Every structure is written in structure tokens, then in C-alpha cells.
Amino acid sequence: MNYLYNNKTILRKIKKSNKILLFLDYDGTLTPIVSKPEAAVLSHRTKKILKILSNDCRFILVVITGRSVSDIKKLVGINRIIYIGNHGFEIKLPGKDILSPGDTKKLMKEVKKQKYIESARTSKYNKLVEDAIKAGSVKP
Questions:
Q1: 3 part of a folded domain
Q2: Pick the catalytic residue: 25, 27, 71, 103?
Q3: Per-residue confidence (pLDDT) for residue 78, from 0 to 100
Q4: Is 27 among the residues known to form the active site?
Q5: CATH label of the domain that carries residue 71
Q6: Could you give the CA distance from residue 102 to residue 95 in angstroms, rounded to a whole number?
């Protein structure tokens, strides 16, 4: 299997980048696939890595899940992460209340205020953000 950390070209680009927007799924990515959801537990090593990355101003971390935001926030337990739960129906920005689809204007106001989009657009990995803007999913 070809893992990200085995790709030297990608690693060089990451090291040179001043902003990195990193989306991670909980079940099956941060934790192994298990038969019962309650058995999916974040390892101490993975949590330590997430804490290190969340304290590095170059990284914007997003954890996405089908679980509720309140559940995933308890499971991961790191405040400086954006949590997206219920397959996108709930969004929790650091230090803010949980937002739902009806809160689109409020969400975009917070995103602009925190400069998440601006940070992502100025990174070398901005194609996803630009595509979302063109599609109308996100407004700069």
C-alpha cells in the first residue's frame, strides 16, 4: 500500500507549505474499522500527533464523521480542531457553538472571521477550496 508518509514529493511540499488544511475521518482513518462503533478508540499516539498538529499554526485540522459533533468532540477531546458531524449537518468551529445547515450565514461569517478560507486559498493545496467556491458551496 502507498502511504502518504512514503511519498517524498508530497512530504517535501508539505514541509514547504505555510498553511495545510487537513481533513480526517474518524472511523477507519484515525481509528481502525471495528464491528461496534463504541470500540473505535483513538490511540494515544494518534491523539498526541493531533495535539502537535493542532498547536502548529500551519495546520487547520478538520475531523469529519457520521457521528454527532458532541460525540466526536468527546472522543477526540482536542479544542483547536474543526469538527464536522452527522455527515456535514453539524459543524463545530473552535470556541464556537455547534452550527447546523440553517446557520449557513452564521457559519460563513465565522469562517471569514477566522480566515479559514483565506488560509486555505493561500496554501499550495487550494484546488479543493477553489472548486468549492466555484460550485457556490463556499463564498470567499
A1: no
A2: 25
A3: 95
A4: no
A5: 3.40.50.1000
A6: 19
